[in-house]
Amino acid sequence: MKYSVFTDTDWIYPDSAHNETKAVRLRIPRGGHTGAQILGEIPAAPLRLQFSWHQETDLDIRLFRLLPVGVNENTDSKLMTTTDYERCKDFVTRKAPFEVYDALCPFEDAPEEDGRLAVYLCIEAKDCVVPGTYTGELSVLEGSLETKIPLTCEVSSVLVPPLSASRLGMLNFFDYDGLATQHHVEKGSAAYWNLFARYVKAQIDMRCTHILLPPGEALFENGVLTGFDFSMAEQAGQIAKREGALWLCGGHIAHWHEWDEQEYYPIWNQSLGITTTEGYLQLRLYLTQWAEIVKRNNWQDCMAQALADEPQTHNDSTYRILAGIFRKFLPGIPIIDAVETTNLGGGIDIWVPKQDTYEKWRSEYDKLQAAGETMWFYTCAFPAGPIMNRSMDLPLTASRAVLWMGALYRLSGFLHWGFNYYIGSDIWHSACCPHKGALLPAGDAHIVYPGKDGPLRSMRFEAQRSGAEDYELLMQAIDTAPEETDRIIRNICTSFRDYTREGTKLAQAKSHLLTLLEQDK
User: Fold this and answer.
1) Residue-wise pLDDT tens digits, 395-426
2) How are the residues of the chain apportioned to helix, strand and coil, as percentages rounded to the nearest 5?
3) How far is 170 from 408, CA to CA, in rounded Å?
4) How far apart are CA 405 and CA 233, in angstroms?
5) Nearest CA-CA partner of 518 in 467, 480, 471, 469
6) Which tens digit of pLDDT belongs to each residue from 350-398?
7) CB under 8 Å to 65, separation ≥6 — which residues?
């Protein structure tokens, strides 16, 4: 069988040309993971894969079939998407429409493909693996024919800490309604919650520290608000904790109508301002009942709260009022939100400015951070262009190097809104999901796909997972050799807009980082 080996830091496509690499060579820290992509030409004969190590080892091998996903439009230079290639040709990988191998399906569950074999081989190293060099081979069996692909894996003595000891916080928003729609199950049913547990596990595997819960649902009698139903939030929180979540995050309870408006409105009544007497009384009812749920489940020490997404300079004073109301009923629960302003002091505990917002007002955010404020960052569809995001027509390096920038800026957490927002009728062929009359950049709304029994991971998922592991190692290196570590980072990225497009360069920098850490031992 004709085949080629590619890194896990570059995209491959159904029409990718072969290269000269025929062996898999990897380097992995203990407690971390790494992988490679294999592209081959196969006949129509039945196909099997099997892997064997030449030595005894605790290294785990997982084999996935790469499934192609259609990118229907390109990321625009400033906002959302475009069909004008001239506007984006300097920073996108390909002219849309095109297909790219992004979705990962366990090989044994994958549909048969004719013509080309695309495989992602993933190695995971437990923290107890003995450092050293291990060899093995992947056998591709086509009927009576066998192709053996050699693998060498060097296990470093460096350790990626477990999630419980991580220095990087992470929150990816979760679509509770979409879970039911995409998997054709009844919301709140046993099948629904079984699927939800698998999604939580996927988030934890990606090193998410916080799991977003749904907000309470308003209850009315004869048009009068009588209370809130928190049964979905309580069930989701209990399952998330059972699956190993470190933190829970209460869902948003208010929003502005327009970004330049001063008032906020409860999510259950978009005609009622929170600064009115009735607005306060409804918030009081909500927060009193929510506080009872938190206390009943002993979540006081593992709960954070999102209040209102993306406060702006026009409504930051009203956000502080909302925060004051919240603190009256749930004192000690940290408030976390994506922010578009620096004027929220005392009203927020975990600041999450967008990557370009942070760089625009970096001096102000640095002052806050130096005073002891917790500073995360986030990415989303705006701004578009070449800025680091998880878009499928940007280099795959962007999905990973974004967390290297977090280390360079000494930011302590990352947020993204789109874990599983499966918007639209066919995300497999139209990855640019509809949003407010436009299209989101390809994959911005989701980093997993709906599989038969739960979420299918993506190459972007694996890249972000790798970036989170890299962050932990970078911060270890910064502790002992900050200038040298920053030089390693700046070889990969110097801002959220300036980063390498070459996956091999990122892989080499990771190897240099491991060497640096080994020397410090």
Assistant:
1) 999 999 999 999 999 999 999 999 999 888 88
2) 30, 30, 40
3) 17
4) 33
5) 480
6) 999 999 999 999 999 999 999 999 999 999 888 889 999 999 999 999 9
7) 104, 105, 106, 107, 110, 113, 118, 119, 120
Question: 413 near 168, Cβ under 8 Å?
Answer: yes
Question: Cα dist. 187→175, 177, 194, 369, 499 in Å?
Answer: 12, 7, 11, 41, 42
Please tell me what DSSP assigns to residue 398: H
Element (H, E) at 451: none
CA distance 244 to 202: 11
Write out the DSSP string of 18-46.
Answer: P-S--SEEEEEEET-EEEEEEEEEE-SS-
Q: Answer left, alpha or beta for residue 410, where phi above 0 means left and psi between -120 and 50 means alpha.
A: left
Instruction: Say which residues have a Cβ less than 8 Å from residue 41's Cβ, sequence separation at least 6.
Output: 1, 2, 3, 115, 116, 117
Q: Is the peptide bond before 450 cis (omega within 30 degrees of 0)?
A: no
| Greatest CA separation for the chain | 78
- Encoded tokens for 96: 């849309």
| Residue 368, both tokens | 């806050």
Q: Cα-flanking dihedrals φ and ψ of residue 390, to 5°?
A: -95, 25
